[in-house]
Design goal:
The structure is a single chain. This protein is an alpha/beta fold and 203 residues long. Helices cover 36% and strands 19% of the residues. The chain has a six-stranded parallel beta sheet with strand order 3-2-1-4-5-6, sandwiched between helices. Helix 4 packs parallel to helix 9 and helix 7 runs parallel beside helix 8. The two termini are 21 Å apart. 43% of the residues are buried.
């Protein structure tokens, strides 16, 4: 939360993990019966802001949770994730596959980054891409608020990257968890609504 005003040309809407395998009814989570209405509503909510930011010369950056294929194509899955989501299988979150892609309502992103953990900075090229593109502010939304969104925003904070978290542009598997995560992010990030950011971008 820096004191200077970062121009739109140096701003990106960071869309965290809004991929078909997470969001679409035919994706990995949908097939497992883990669809959540608040999560499913995010792409259409975020689309107008993405369009406005791009029209004003800003960026749209998407992160893509990835299960790296190992021997025989079997995904390499961290033990904690396998215990939490035992339904994950070969082909889920596979780089280049339909399930790995950003949902249609938000395509195309200007920049995309594969990630293997909650934070989009952990062992990825995200910081390099942001620096090379001159991006100094991230407006973050996506899933889940308490996981990928929170972890990425906290790492942006320690890198002196200005952040805004969209309170109605991110979601978790329960409203209570979402609200708790948003409250916990207030010391490190500005919190705003999509409407508030649309008004600023359009001004």
């Amino acid at each position: 939360m820096s004191g200077d005003i970062v121009p739109i040309s140096e701003t990106a809407l960071l869309i965290v993990d809004l991929q078909n395998d997470f969001v679409h009814p035919l994706g990995a989570y949908g097939r497992a019966g883990l669809g959540v209405a608040e999560i499913a509503a995010l792409p259409d909510r975020l689309a107008p802001l993405a369009q406005a930011i791009r029209a004003k010369g800003g960026f749209v950056v998407s992160t893509h949770f990835t299960l790296v294929p190992g021997r025989g194509g079997e995904p390499i899955i961290s033990p904690h994730l396998k215990a939490l989501r035992p339904f994950l299988a070969k082909g889920d979150f596979l780089p280049g596959a339909w399930g790995h892609q950003l949902v249609d309502a938000l395509q195309p992103s200007d920049l995309s980054v594969e990630k293997i953990a909650y934070s989009a900075f952990y062992m990825t090229r995200l910081e390099w891409v942001l620096r090379k593109s001159g991006i100094r502010r991230l407006i973050a939304g996506g899933i889940v608020t308490n996981g990928g969104v929170a972890s990425t925003v906290r790492e942006a904070h320690v890198r002196d990257i200005d952040t805004v978290v969209l309170s109605d542009g991110s979601a978790a598997f329960t409203r209570e968890v979402h609200d708790t995560a948003i409250a916990a992010l207030r010391p490190v990030s500005r919190i705003a609504t999509i409407a508030e950011m649309l008004a600023e971008v359009s001004a």
